[in-house]
Amino acid sequence: MSAHQVEGENAYSDWWAWEQAGHVKGRSGLACDHYRRFREDFDLAKQLHHNAHRLSIEWSRIEPQPGRWDEEAIAHYQEVIAALRERHLEPIVTLFHFTSPKWFSERGGWQQPKATEQFGHYVERVVEALGSSVRYWITFNEPAIYVYQGYVAGVWPPGQRSWPAAFRVLERLLHAHTMAYHLIHARLDSQGFVPLVGFAKHMVVFTPCNPRSRKDRLATWVRQSYFNSAIAESFERGHLLPRLQHLLRRSIHRRYLDFIGLNYYTRDFVHFKGWTWGKLFGEVCSLTHHPDAGVRNSLGWEVYPQGIYQCLKQLARTGLPVLVTENGICTNDDGQRTRFIQDHLAEVARAMSEGVPVLGYLYWSLLDNYEWHEGFVPRFGLVEVDYATQRRRMRPSARYLASIAKAGQLVPGNGTAE
Ligand code: BGC
To answer: How far is the C-alpha of 43 from the C-alpha of 394, rounded, in Å?
Structure first.
């Protein structure tokens, strides 16, 4: 889960301001009221035999004004981690999941030179407060998606449409990541507790719309090289152009990842768009008429289980352990969710049997939640949330995943699991 999507009343963040300004379909409001109900939500996770839980810390709650630290909010997250530990749920903590304090954005966000330093102060406070009660740290969730939506498509804050700005921000996120990597290790290694620091990489399987078209294959290759490979390599090596460095025979010895998080949802069919900058990435062609496209989720994304295997195999080449930090489906047909889980886990198992070091699998998401500019309509949850009453109801797919978690091995599901 991520803070803004479930906690509710996240009023000091840039996303909240974006919603109030009417840029999106629905406002997050009380969301799942998880800020108050975290204990009962963790009880559900425990009943479902989960042994890990991913959450994000909300920077804007901890530092609502520049340099003003909210001790109550810090204590809240300490209680959250303690509540997870009491239930034997391993906390997986994300430091930045798309939202920033409003003041940070107003000062220019990640485009201002001081951004890394400001983020550093926040990271320092979090590490000081949570310290050795957290082993798994994720610095950034999906940097490329964040940059694309906020600085190229302009549908998320700060709503810009500029490739140069996008690259500047990406570079800054990379520096912020290496800084946070050092900081977490510097603070915690000496305590005899070795933290594992990574980031969550969104990967999409790309395939040409027309496999016989050279241009479609080229656009597919550009997307694959950039969105999937280059960004993962940059975060691992702490350099935006690690391959160029390699060509220049400058070896980069350091590594800035102890593990890599994989967020996997779908496959895209790519169509050539043109030779100019930006267009080289091609465009995604409509699945409606594509003969190879499989079933889709309620947002129209193709369900393509083999893709998780392909991504895991690709990431395995880094030699790093991989944690599946997100994999899930939004659907109003819960039988489809059960099949999704079954088919994707079978592919994860296939990758593991071929030696890919998979640390774990986190389904997205425990609860239905606020899906950014799509609002509350998409239902990703194992647990249904009735937003009017805040009542939770376990879906059959939740029980199906629970039976796998309990047994520690794959069990057959018939799509109507109870
Ligand atoms: C994001 C989540 C989001 C999910 C489903 C991921 O890209 O990390 O915040 O809810 O996908 O769209």
So the answer is: 12
Q: Is the CB of 364 under 6 A from ligand 1?
A: yes
In angstroms and rounded to an integer, the radius of gyration of the C-alpha atoms of the chain is: 21
How far apart are alpha carbons 224 and 209 in whole angstroms? 14
In a domain, 121, yes or no: no
- Which of 6, 363, 372 most suits a substitution to test ligand 1, by most atoms within 8 Å of the C-beta? 372
Domain count along the chain: 1
How many whole angstroms from 343 Cα to the centroid of ligand 1? 20
Instruction: Report the percent of the chain where pLDDT is more than 70.
Output: 95
Which residue's structure tokens are 């937003």?
A: 387
* Cα 124 to ligand 1 centre (Å): 26
178-207 pLDDT, tens digit per residue, is: 999 999 999 999 888 899 999 999 999 999
Ligand 1 mutation target, pool 326, 327, 330, 373, most atoms within 8 A of CB: 326
CATH code (residue 316): 3.20.20.80
Q: What angle do CA 241, 221, 206 make, to 5 degrees?
A: 115
Indicate which atom in ligand 1 lies nearest the CA of residue 328.
5
Task: Decide whether any atom of ligand 1 lies within 6 Å of the 326 Cβ.
Answer: yes
- Domain range for 393: 36-52+139-407
What pTM did the predictor assign? 0.96
pLDDT of residue 418: 42
Asked if the peptide bond before residue 100 counts as cis, ω within 30 degrees of 0, the response is no
Q: Is the dihedral of CA 79, 84, 85, 90 positive or negative?
A: negative
